[in-house]
Specification:
Elements: H1 2-8, H2 10-19, H3 24-52, H4 57-62, H5 66-82, H6 86-101, H7 106-111
Helix pairs in contact: 1-3, 2-3, 3-5, 3-6, 5-6
Amino acid sequence: MHLLFWLSLIPFATAWMGENDFAELPMVLYGVVLWMAGLAYYILTRVMIGSHGKDSTLATAIGKDSKGILSLVGYTIAIVLAFVNPLISFALYVLVAILWLIPDTRIEKTMGR
C-alpha cells in the first residue's frame, strides 16, 4: 500500500510540474514523490526477502538491487539540483527512467536455473 500511495501521486506531481513550466518547487515535489516511491519499492523488496529468507530464490534474483539504490541516489541529487537548475533535475529524472527501461534479467536468469 505504501508503494501504491506514492505511485498514485505521480500524475498530480507531473501535471503540476507541466503546468508551471518545470519551476523549482514542482520539480522538487516530483522528485520527492519519485524518491518516496523508490524507497517504498526498496522496503518492499527487503520485506519480501526477509519473509522468504536470505538464501531464497527471490533474494538471489534481487541481489544487491543496484538499480534501486542508484535510482534513489539519482533522485536525491536531482532534488538538490532542482534548487540550482530545474532542467538539470529534469535530465536526471529522465536518466533514471531510461535506467529502468533497460531490461533487467536478474529474475529471469535466476528462475530459469
